[in-house]
Backbone:
DNA sequence: CGCCGATTTGATCGTGGTCAACAATAGTGG
DNA sequence: CCACTATTGTTGACCACGATCAAATCGGCG
C-alpha cells in the first residue's frame, strides 16, 4: 500500500506523470516529513542532499549577503517542487513559513529515479520553466516598481496563489479574504523593502478603503480594481 | 550532410545530448538565422512560436511595465537556449545586443522532438535549473544591493561570462579586458538603475584606479580584488 | 495583569532619481 | 577630410522615496 494513494497533491505535483506501479517505486525512496513554522529544511550553500515535493503549507526560498541583508527569492505552495536536482549545491535556503508537510527524497536517489522516468523529468521541466518565467517577472517588480506598486502586486499575487486549487485554475478565482503566511518582516524580504515601509503602505491602503486588515495577518480586498490600478 | 557538423556550440548546447543520427533529424526541423545588433527575435506577450539555440553573439531578455519602464531579465550567450517550450506565450522579449547567429525551431516542432528525446529534455532541464538559480541570485542583487555593489557584481559577472569557453570552465579564467555588449542605458536596465547613476559609478571606479575605460564599451579591470570587495 | 516580540507611527537622513546642460563620439553628406 | 547632426555618455544641482533611527502601541501568552 502506497502513502501516495492518500497524497493531497498526487494529481498536481510532478508525480502525476507516473502510473500506479511507478508511484510505488517512487514512494519506496521517499518519506514524508512535517515541519513547524520557521523550521529550516535546507541551508544556503549546503551540499544538495535533499529534494522534495510540498504537500501542505508554504515555504520560502531565501538568500542573503555576507553582511546579513536577506531576500526571499521564491515562495512555494502545495504541489511545488523544492531543491536542486542534478547539481551539487543548493544555492538557496528553504524554510517553512507555516506548518508544512513535504515528501522528501535523497537527491541522488531522486536523480536516478528521474533519469529512468522521462515523463517525470518532463513534468519537472515544465514546472521549472514556469517558475523561471515567474521569477523573471518578479525581477521587474524588484527593480522598477515603487513600494506602493510592490505591495499591490504582492497582495494580488497572494490572493491568487493562496486560493484553493479546485476544478478551475486559481487565476480565475482569486480570494477576497486570506491570511498571509508572512510576517511584516517577511513581506519586506519578498519585496526588497523595509518593515516600516511595508507597514506604512498597509495602513495607507486600509485608510483609503482598498483593504481591511482585521488582524495582523488577515487581508480583505475591498476594492480589487483599485488595487489592480495601483499594481502598475 | 548536417549544418550542425560545423556548429560552434555543437558540444555545449543542449544538442550535445544527441548522437549523429538524432542531430540529423533535429537539423531537419531547424534553420540558422542571423540577427543584427538591436534586432528583435521574439516580442513580449506574443504567442510562443519560436525557440532557439544561441550560436554566436549576445541577446537580452526583457520585460516592461505599461508606462515604459524596462528591465532586462536575462542575458544569453552562445550555447544558451531561448524561448518558451511547452507553453503558449513567451513572457519576455528577446533582442540581439550584438550581431548574433541563432538556430531557430518552430516551438511545436521542437516540443514534439524533445518529447521523443528524453536526453535532450534532460539537458534542457539542467540548463533551466541553472538559469533559475542564476536568476534568483540576481534578485538579491536587484532588491538589496547598492548601486556600487550592483556595478561591481555586474562587471565581475561579465568578465566571467564573456570569457571564451575553452577547456577550463569560464569561472576559472575571467577576462581582465573586454567589450561590454551593452550601452549605458542597457547596463542600467540590467541593474535596475538609471543611466546617470551607472555613468557616475563607472567614472568613480575609474578615478579610484579600479577600472580603465579606454572607450565607451571597453572595460579593463585593474584591481579585481578591490572590485570583489565592492561587490558585497 | 505584566512581559516580550511584532507592528505601527513619527522624525530625520541619504542614496539614487530627476531635470538640465554639456561633452564626446559615431554617422552622414558635401 | 571636414563640417554638421544625431546619438550616447558625462556632469551638476536639486529632489523624493524609502531607509534609518527612535519611540509608542498592540497583541499574545505566562
Residues:
Amino acid at each position: 500500500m502506497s502513502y501516495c494513494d492518500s497524497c493531497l497533491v498526487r494529481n498536481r505535483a510532478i508525480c502525476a506523470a507516473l502510473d500506479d506501479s511507478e508511484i510505488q517505486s517512487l514512494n519506496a525512496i521517499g518519506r514524508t516529513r512535517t515541519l513547524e513554522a520557521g523550521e529550516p529544511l535546507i541551508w544556503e550553500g549546503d551540499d544538495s542532499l535533499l529534494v522534495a515535493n510540498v504537500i501542505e503549507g508554504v515555504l520560502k526560498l531565501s538568500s542573503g549577503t555576507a553582511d546579513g541583508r536577506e531576500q526571499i527569492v521564491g515562495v512555494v505552495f502545495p504541489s511545488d517542487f523544492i531543491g536542486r536536482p542534478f547539481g551539487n549545491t543548493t544555492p538557496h535556503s528553504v524554510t517553512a513559513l507555516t506548518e508544512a508537510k513535504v515528501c522528501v527524497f535523497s537527491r541522488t536517489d531522486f536523480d536516478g529515479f528521474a533519469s529512468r522516468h522521462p515523463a517525470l523529468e518532463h513534468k519537472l521541466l515544465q514546472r521549472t520553466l514556469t517558475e523561471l518565467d515567474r521569477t523573471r517577472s518578479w525581477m521587474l517588480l524588484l527593480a522598477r516598481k515603487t513600494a506602493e506598486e510592490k505591495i499591490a502586486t504582492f497582495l494580488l499575487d497572494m490572493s491568487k496563489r493562496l486560493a484553493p486549487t479546485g476544478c478551475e485554475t486559481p487565476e480565475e478565482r482569486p480570494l477576497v479574504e486570506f491570511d498571509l503566511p508572512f510576517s511584516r518582516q517577511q513581506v519586506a524580504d519578498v519585496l526588497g523593502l523595509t518593515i516600516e515601509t511595508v507597514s506604512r503602505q498597509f495602513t495607507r491602503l486600509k485608510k483609503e478603503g482598498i483593504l481591511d486588515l482585521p488582524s495582523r495577518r488577515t487581508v480583505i480586498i475591498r476594492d480589487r480594481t483599485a488595487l489592480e490600478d495601483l499594481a502598475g
Remarks:
- The interface with chain B takes residues 61, 63-67, 69-71, 73-74, 84-87, 91-92, 115, 118, 121-122, 124-126, 128-133, 135-140, 142-145, 191-192, 232 of chain A (CB under 8 Å).
